[in-house]
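Minutes, project huddle
Topic: does the predicted pose make sense with hypoxanthine bound?
PN asked that the exact inputs be recorded in the minutes so nobody has to dig through chat later. Recorded below.
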Amino acid sequence: MPKIQIEILEKLYEIAYSLAKQLKENPEFVISSGSGFSGVWDKFNILQRISFNEINSMPTVNVEGHGNEIVVIQHSGKIGLVFTGRFHLYEDYSIEEILIPIIIPCLFGVKNFILFNAAGGLNPKFNVGDIMIIEDIINFTSKKIQNIFNSSFLTDKDFSCDIFAKQWISRTEVMLSENKISYHKGTYIEVTGPTYETRAEVKMFRTFGGDAIGMSTALESIAASLLKTNVLAFSIITNQLKEVKKNGISHQEVLNAVLSKQSDIEKIIDFAIQSIDLSYM
Ligand code: HPA
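Predicted holo structure (tokens), as shared on screen:
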């Protein structure tokens, strides 16, 4: 059982209880997706769809291109919960609300998380539509997840600098290579948004060692890692920050870039689920 502050658990248990009452199967993995992913799930074996509105105390998502439901899928003999919408910092959600797709499944015993995001490409070698396996993250949100955990949990031995599951990454990479799906590996920076970066910020974030930048995933990954689960995360590069456009980037461009890679994204999901090793922790 994760050591989360009791008053936060009280709120989250309400959501967990309401969801548990509706679920017909025990989930073994979770996928958290975002902008532009809504069409992807139709290609999978869907067992159930549960709208966020049908879950007590569950917030709703108000960003175009995000869904507002949990889709229960079965793939490669495993049952998974797909959170089709995310709660972002820029919409003023609390840290515990942002972490709902991580903490609630942890309460159910889920140990495997696959996270996707749409991201701007800081690395000049990246192009729109490229896929990056996240090897490491920089939390540039100024938000800390520590407050939601009981301080006795946050000792040195509980915190690992290796947030992402190396063996899971390797197994997925083998399948990507065998299927000739090209990908990068790199560091992802989470910022609060919702505005995109200025030219000076892009320069700074590149100097910091960032390859891709977006408005999710780092806080979720740190929490999932603290909760002793396996995390595999991907960025879909939706815009290149080689040169910052005068009029910025439209949300539509972000959605279009994800849609253009839908078939590769479906394969990546397939490989990521296939390479979950339920015995490996
Ligand atoms: N910056 C931050 N978040 C993003 C970007 C970006 O350029 N593209 C998609 N999400």
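Observations noted during the meeting:
- The mean pLDDT is 88.
- The longest strand covers residues 230-240.
No decisions taken; revisit at the next huddle.
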